[in-house]
Amino acid sequence: MKNLTSEVLTNHGVVEYGSSEKSFNMMRSFLEYFGFDIDEMAKIPFKTRQSFTLTFESPYNYNSSSVSVDGNLLRDNTYITAKSSSYIINYGGKYSAILKDPRGNAVSSKKVTFILNGKSIGSANTDKNGVAAIQLTSKILKTAKSGKKNLEIRFNDDDYNSASKTVKVSVNKEKTKFAAKSKSFRKSQKTKKYSVILKNSKNKALKGVKVYIKVNGKKYAAKTNSRGKATFKITKLTKKGKFKAKITYNGDSCYQKASKNIKITVR
Prior knowledge:
The protein contains 3 helices and 20 strands.
């Protein structure tokens, strides 16, 4: 291996960089004994997988002392702080993770990668506070599909040891609801038209989806228009009376089921 050429002079002797490998603990004990600043030493940017030897040459005619260490062991560890989160599949949102060193200092301007359900969905650089943020778009969430997913946050860099953390991300279907009221019809009406409106969680119309109504043992289907309105044509309700009816929407990959009970009166 190629030798590093820098030297550190102290009142006690010379620390000389060479090549080899051993343990960080031995090196740390050696340095601390002779008064070196370990934190400052840890900032040395070993960007290659070189190793080095620290040798102490005593001015008092004692035997020389040395310790060898893998240069990678001088890299700082990093830690990722990240929490589980939940999103609505149709809207998504921002997700953030924090990268810090062992002393709690933010690690800034470093690339962090995000992997959702085993698939890389992008990366972001940490800001001055060590925060890396990515937008979990509706497209990303729809590709992953609804349910609980693993989100892995990874950090790999030449200046620091690697770090990763996996959290749970819940991808939830959007809630839906019916706007519908009980209604009365005259017995003489052969086709009794009954309308409902299907809306999403933001109170916006859900268009082009099938909804159902079941009344007096008979089930009828209708499709919502651009305003979310569906009109059922009830033809088998010919007797007078009060009838319980249930309106249902079966949901899909992005929307939750919805139902509502109403009463229909034939007078």
